[in-house]
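Justification of resources, computational component.

The compute hours requested in this renewal are based largely on the per-chain cost of generating structure records like the one below. Each record pairs the submitted sequence with a full structure-token output. That output is archived, and it is also reused by downstream analysis tasks.
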Amino acid sequence: MAMPVEHLLGDVSSETETSATVALRVAAARQLQMRRQGKLNARLTPSEVTRFCGLERESRVLLGTAMSRLGLSARACHRVLKLARTCADLANEPQIRRIDVAEAVQLRALDKLTC
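The structure output for this chain reads:
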């Protein structure tokens, strides 16, 4: 599922966040990660990814499709899961949602294009 252009580029009609607001969300997400698992998402081990980055069926299907289409390795899959966990944390969501997985996959696809 592709992210809407408005989401990626910012909808002109919506209010934009200031740098200070974004900084507060990032700080809150980092604190949440430290409370939940004692480290930042980027530092999770494979077993911790399994423990803290669980997906509902719909999100697992999306990730599986993305892995096949993009040719993602297990290591890349774990990176996507950690990024999806971070997206959920930034949105202050307790569970990783489908939209978090979609955003993480989009970012990973962009990363593959630049490598």
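Residues 7 and 103 are 10 Å apart (CA to CA). The mean pLDDT is 89.
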